[in-house]
Amino acid sequence: METLRTERLLLRPWTLDDTDFIFGLYSLWAVQQHIGLHPRVMTDRAEAIAVIKHWAGMEHPIHAVRAVTDADTGEIFGNLLLKSIPASSPVAPLEPSGDTEIGWHFHPNAWHNGYATEAAAAVLAEGWKTGLDRVVAVTTPSNRPSQRVCLRIGMTHQGRTDQYYNSVSELFVVDAPES
Predict the structure, then answer these.
(1) C-beta separation of 125 from 74 below 8 A
(2) In this structure, are residues 99 and 134 in contact, taking their beta carbons and an 8 Å threshold?
(3) pLDDT digits (tens, 9 = 90+) for 65-124
(4) Least crowded by CB within 10 Å, which of 58, 90, 111, 163?
(5) Locate the N-acetyltransferase domain: which residues (predicted)?
(6) Rg for the chain, CA atoms, rounded
């Protein structure tokens, strides 16, 4: 995975040194309430270690989950993910849909600073350079802040869908710019 830099941010791979941040982030209901069909907070530091190891093991030329940090201080703000999104299905585990999803999870202390928009725009730009032609994002219907980020990075709201994650979500889509 390539490290990306923006004016204010460094988007880099997660390491086990980041375990305390991940545990703290996903232990917050304010963060978790919009993630997954049955949101729950992380209760064990071992879960954070497993998540980081999973992200580090993603072997894909484009897909990655990156730590979003202050480019100058290294302070971690959250994460930016570009990954395969699972299709809804009555059979578990869910299988890939064939679409690529962009998403973000930020610590509340980092909200309202434009970090998600800045990081997502950088990841999309990198994705277009590496051959992606379409990216989707899904949010819970009540997650207005993430919906605004989707619009700010050029995504179009397509309405509600149940085609991903076995849940009803707001769907946003963006196609690669024409060269």
Answers:
(1) no
(2) yes
(3) 999 999 999 999 999 999 988 888 888 777 878 899 999 999 999 999 999 999 999 999
(4) 90
(5) 9-177
(6) 15
Task: Give the model confidence (pLDDT) of 45-67 as tens digits.
Answer: 999 999 999 998 887 878 899 99
Number of H helices, E strands in the chain: 5, 8
0.85 surpassed by pTM? yes
The residue type found at 19 is T
Phi/psi at 94 (nearest 5 deg)?
-65, 145
Sign of the CA dihedral running 171, 123, 7, 17: positive
CATH class of 4-175: alpha beta
Handedness of CA 98, 54, 160, 136 (dihedral sign): negative
Q: Which two tokens stand for residue 73?
A: 């201080």
What is the distance in angstroms between the CA of the first residue and the CA of the last residue of the chain?
Answer: 24
Backbone CA torsion sign across 144, 137, 119, 40: positive
Cα–Cα distance list, 16 to 32, 45, 67, 84, 116 (Å): 21, 11, 12, 23, 23
The position carrying tokens 């996903």 is 26
